[in-house]
Amino acid sequence: MNAPSGIATTASLPAGYYNAALDLLDRNVAEGRGDKVAVIDDAGRYTYGDLTARANRFANALSDLGIRRGERVLLALHDSVDFPTAFLGAIKAGIVPVCVNTLLTPKDFDFMLEDTGATALVVSQAILGQFTPILDRHRPADGGMLQHVVVSGAADEGALTVEALLASAPAQHQPALTVADDICFWLYSSGSTGTPKGAVHIHSSLMRTAELYARPILGITEDDVTFSAAKLFFAYGLGNNLTFPFAVGATAVLMAERPTPAACFRRLTEHRPTIFFGVPTLYGAMLSGPDMPSPDDLALRHCVSAGEALPADLARRWKERFGVDILDGIGSTEMLHIFISNRPGDIAPGTSGRPVPGYEAKLVGEDGQPVARGEMGELFVAGPSACIMYWRKREKSLDTFHGRWTRTGDKYLETEAGHLAYCGRADDMMKVSGQYVSPFEVEGALVSHQSVLEAAVVAHEDADGLIKPRAFIVLREGIAGSEDLARALKDHVKAQIAPYKYPRWFDFVDELPKTATGKIQRFKLRRLDK
Are 149 and 155 in contact (CB under 8 A)? Predict the structure, then answer.
């Protein structure tokens, strides 16, 4: 039997076969939810019956275009109904969708088309211009693999569009005979530490995240409405607003525009989602805005944070303002979603919580041996949603994947109560006065100051070549940086944590460099020293 334990084979496939798209879509129709709203996007509402038919039509259209099982289709799509249509439609046909960040540059997209060898590109009209300069070199006439460009949204005359493909394709589709361990889709790492890597996932991974995290930790049911500020191209967003709601027959609210506080509050009040997924930067910005709604205008029962560790002070202020805890956790592109988390009734502010049941975690020292409780070590995780490799990166794969264990590159320590506390990326750590300093700990002390909106801390050499912390600060609206404020922030940090950890230099900036998923790119700040 090739279906994963605990996940049923899809009824329309012979015994032993499994297709993730059928499990997420057709099962809802078979269980009587065909008329239930699956997706609300900026243009309208779509039932599970609608979405299943759209995915079937798209699967048929891809096959009609000559795209074969196992070939890659690059998806550069904003969050709308076309994303699950294309993503799940490709999976039904046994074609491999590769989801990419819509905020990248032509240079990035050029690399990804080359790396994937994609035979088709499905792209939102608003970002088609980012691809135009590079498309010709990927065409078969120039030795490339790209045969078709399909546009989501209005397009120039003669262009191939998603709607045109759907209009001409049948609504019934005979799915490919895939198994649980077949390659299903790829996601690219966010690039918070440099060059993106294609993480290759199998069919069973999607439902695993729902069964191990969404159901037991969030208690998600078909009555929930989800809304994720993190976009669907991101592993976090894909689980939040596609896998999780579709796994139980709930409703997902999709938003194409960037997740500003105003845009998020508008969806939270108009559609009244019950589960909201954000990142620490966004939660901080939402609390700093002038037009926060009343808690009575919202219907939230859970808020979730990932992408970066959540400062305890920020979690406290959100709970005081809206009456809902933020459940902080850690996930990764490699593991597909959150594998360590706080949970209702077991929240330890300033920590990522405990391993999600079904996952294992261990902290390893520089000698490769487990560290004692209270000591900092590198986090390794094991679980059934791990990707199987990085595409075309064998050495990096061997460095990251150690049997069933995945090396995260994050430094953690285990508290006396058994919670795991984030200390920073392994390559972000700095040694000050002979002792390791976590940038996250210093950043947490800084953002607890009333003048600070965001902070990032990196290592910087002083005149003697010794390493000390350097802080980049985004101040709250109406506050200006000054030497007096820098001195006040130094004193504030010394009062919060060990004095030797305070930043020696302060740079007041308008914004911090981040990935589209909200992770601070400290490596870009370190380059300012070069």
Answer: no
Predicted TM-score of the model (pTM): 0.86
pLDDT digits (tens, 9 = 90+) for 97-132: 999 999 888 999 999 999 999 999 999 999 999 999
Determine the average pLDDT of the residues in 392-408. 96
- For CA atoms 289, 294, 300, 301, give the dihedral sign: positive
**Residue burial 139-177, b: 16+ Cβ < 10 Å; e: rest:** eeeeebbbbbbbbbbebeeeeebbeebbeebeeebebbe
Render pLDDT for 408-442 as a digit per residue (tens, 0 to 9): 999 999 999 999 999 887 777 787 866 778 888 89
- Cross-strand pairs, 201: 185
Instruction: Count the residues in the chain.
Output: 530
The pLDDT of residue 400 is 96
What does the pLDDT read at residue 424? 80
SS3 235: helix
Distance CA 326, CA 302 (A): 7
How far is the C-alpha of 97 from the C-alpha of 71, rounded, in Å? Answer: 9
Other CB atoms within a 10 A radius of the CB of residue 221 amount to 12
Residues 100, 108: Cα–Cα separation, whole Å: 10
Sheet strands side by side (includes 148-152): 160-161, 148-152, 120-124, 72-76, 96-99, 183-188, 198-202, 389-390
Question: Could you tell me the pLDDT band of residue 499, with boundaries at 50, 70 and 90?
Answer: confident
Instruction: Quote the Cα angle for 216-242-235, to 5°.
Output: 85
Task: Identify each DSSP E strand in 148-305 by its residue range.
Answer: 148-152, 160-161, 183-188, 198-202, 225-228, 251-253, 275-278, 302-305
Taking the CA atoms of 145, 151, 152 and 158 in sequence, report the sign of the dihedral they define.
negative
Residue 444 near residue 280 (C-beta atoms within 8 A):
no
Asked if residue 400 lies in contact with residue 388, where contact means CB atoms within 8 angstroms, the answer is no
Q: Is the pLDDT of residue 8 over 50?
A: no
